[in-house]
Structures are given as C-alpha cells and as structure tokens.
Amino acid sequence: MLLLYSAGSVLTAFVYNQHTFALPIFLNDALGEVAGPRVFGAAMMANGLTVVALTALVVLASKRLRSLTSVALASAFYAVGFGAYYLVGGSRYGVPLALGATVVWTVGEILGSTNGNAFVAEKAPPAYRSRVNSVVSFSYIAGGALAPLAAGSIARAYGSAAVWPFVAASAALSAAFMYGVDRLDKKTGARVTAAGS
Predict the structure, then answer these.
(1) Is the pTM of this model over 0.90?
(2) Which of 13, 52, 132, 141 is deepest in the core (most CB within 10 A)?
(3) Angle subtended at Cα 49 by Cα 43 and Cα 50, rounded to the nearest 5 degrees
C-alpha cells in the first residue's frame, strides 16, 4: 500500500507544483505583463488566507473519511481548481475566476497535507517510518521535478493555456488511482482483520 501511495504521490506532486511554475507564466500570458504578476500575488495571498481560514473546517468535515479517501478527494479538488484556470484567459471575469480556482485547489492542498502523512503513519511500522517517509518524500520531489519539464514542453508547443487541461486530467487520474488504492487497502485490511479474529 505504501509503495502504491508513493507512486501516486509522484502524479499528485506533479499537479500541485504547477502553481509555482505554470501558473505565473500563464497569468502573465493571459492577463498581461502588468496585471499577471499582480494577480499571481493575489492568488498566492488567497492560497495562504484559505489555509488559515479553512484548515480547521476542512479537517472537521473530513474527519470521518479514511485518510486515503481524503487524499483522493484532494486530487479531485486539484482537477477542478487547476482545470478552471483554463477559462481565465478568455473570460471578462478572469481575475475573480483565478482567485476562486486558487481557493478550490487550496482546499485540496489542505486535505492532502493533513491526510497524506496520517496514511503513512497508519501503515508504516514504527521501526521503518523514517525510511518510508524518505521514499514518500522522494516521490514528491520527483513529481515536483517533472512539473516544469512537462508543463514547459506543453506551453512551448501549444501555449500556456494548454497546460491546464493536461494538469486537470492528471489530477483526475491521480484521484482515481488513490481511490483505487484506498479500496484495495480497505479490502485487504478487512481480510487481515477476519483472518486475525
């Protein structure tokens, strides 16, 4: 389960890290060299304020969900939030849409960060927890390294707006994969419990 989770984390990190690479480039292209950086700054402020304002509420709302279910749900929020950036360039409501999209994927960020580590802690034997965390951290680093490579190639070939459908599809794939791992983990856990009893 932990290896599968680590593999899925590469894709999750690839999606999440687009806010540091593809987003500023896209906003600059879509809104101009003056408005783009300002809106990017406002989006990052919206990100920080959302974390401060909603973390407790999101944790409370998701406390009955399994850790990995919440991680899968985080990727679903990524799919909607990052995918919505595609609409920013051609909309007269581009700025509020960009800020709203940021709030949506930030909810995913809260879900993922509060539940990903919980899943690792639940599954990793205490004696191997540091090693497992190292593998998971490497997965995030690998996904983060792939983010500019893939997004840069897409933006160069098709324009920066074309990055977002690809990122949204990657997030949806990540959500489906993590949910599948969660179902497998639940099924396997039920078997182990039955065998143990």
Answers:
(1) yes
(2) 13
(3) 85
